[in-house]
Structures are given as structure tokens and as C-alpha cells.
């Protein structure tokens, strides 16, 4: 009888060892094998629940087993192996083993293994990806009002995202461009903090416009997390003079009101008559100018000056007293 040489025998044993190890680690998968376990990768947000399902098309009543990323057995058939109340049996039969992992943490991310204990052992892997849910964005830079024609720099920050979230800016419903974004990793927590800076040139028409910072992340539905604040723009007043009546009659009482539309509201008003002094019977009370008894000598152009500390403006009204 002929015996194989020692090198040949060693080579054969080594080959068998490699093939067995590969099969156990799921590197050899026969798609036509009805007893080959099938799993799927799953994605879940921190705090959520993920269901891991392992199925085979046929079974010889061998037990299915789920193991975690550290190769600790979680469930062997219907039997719990690891004392972790977050892990519960979802469903078990001869061809399926499904388990739930609740209150998922970032540390739960990784590759889980389903094994069917036949000879050889058949395995399949499922990768669980855990998303770190970003915090509600916080906006700074609105502390002080901005004079019209000036610029304001706003900063939006959001913490705790995995992968790193992105931030978007809106003015009303219009998305704003030109912002810069910074991502800072937090290694101990496996998450990232993101911030975005936006510089705007403002005009008086921007006063009270809503500026929104929104977080975009796969763990969130569109619009889930956003913050908004109103712009405060300072501008000098526009002045308008409103008459008490459009038919001022001789001998009647008549008043004019000066309206100064500015931010802030005007704190000081001044009345004058163009090219003349105010009639002695004209009484000034802040934004009001009143005549107790109109006279045709009161005809003329009256001026009102309004000052709000940012600037001043004037309005005018032509008074024609009817006989």
C-alpha cells in the first residue's frame, strides 16, 4: 500500500481546516443550499428597536442561533443565552429565528451572526448600523438688532449625530446658500457635532423675517428638527401725516397726526410750517398738531419731523381750509 508523503498529508489537513473555517465564517455560501441561513442588514436609530431575522428554506430540525458582535450567543432556538432584557425573542420555528433588540445604543453596532448547527455549521452575517440622532439645532447671533445695510453672522449647531448631520438655512421658504459647515468628531461617543455659519446683508424689508436652521439626517424625516428666529433690523422712520378730516372747515376743530414707521418707533416729533412759524392757535402734543378753530390764515404746508435714534425723516401736509 502506498502512503502519501508527509508534505502532501499536511497540505490536505491544512486545506480541510481552511475550508471548515471559511464555512463557519460564512465565506462559502451555496445559493442553492436550502439549509443555508439568510439574513439582511438593518439600520436603526439610537433608542429604537431592531429586528434581526434569520431564515432557512428547509430544516432538519437543527437549531438556529443568533450571536452578537463579540460572538456571544444571544438566543439558541427559543432559549435566551445572554442576560440582557433589551433582547427578546420575536419569533422562533424550525426554519426561522427572529429576535428584537430594544433601546439600541451606539455600542450595538456591528456584525451579528446567525448559525445553523448542522455538519458543517452554516452561517450568515447581518450588519446592524446604528444612527446617532442629532439634537435640535441651536441658533446664535440674534442677540442684537442690526442696522439696515449692515451684516449679521448667524451660527447654527447640532450635536450627537452619527453619521455627521448636515445643516440647511432658510429665509421664509427660500433656501439660503453661501454658508460654511464644520464637523467636529467626538471620539468617546462615536458621534459628531456640526456647526454652520451664515452671513447676511440686511435691509429694512428683512425686519421680522424668519430665519430657519434645519437638520438633515437619515434618522430624521424632513422637517423633523429645525429652529427659527426672526431678524431684527433697525431703520430710520418713514413719515406720513394723516388728517382728522379730508374736509377741514373754517371754525371747526381739526387735528393732524404724524405717523413714523421705523424700528424702533420714533421717540421724538417736531412740527413746523413751511416758510412760516406755527400759528399761535396750533397746539403741539407729540405726534399730534391740533387747531381749536380753523381759520383760512392757517392754510399752508405743515411739516412733521420724526426721529428714532437711528435716523430722522420728515413728512408734509398741505392744509386748505374750506369756507
Automatic annotation (TrEMBL):
Residues 1-26 form the signal peptide. It comes from the Eukaryota. Its main location: membrane. Keywords: Disulfide bond, Immunoglobulin domain, Membrane, Repeat, Signal, Transmembrane, Transmembrane helix. InterPro entries: CD80_C2-set (IPR013162), Ig-like_dom (IPR007110), Ig-like_dom_sf (IPR036179), Ig-like_fold (IPR013783), Ig_sub (IPR003599), Ig_sub2 (IPR003598), Ig_V-set (IPR013106). Residues 34-129, 137-232, 237-318 form the Ig-like domain. This is Ig-like domain-containing protein. It is a single-pass membrane protein.
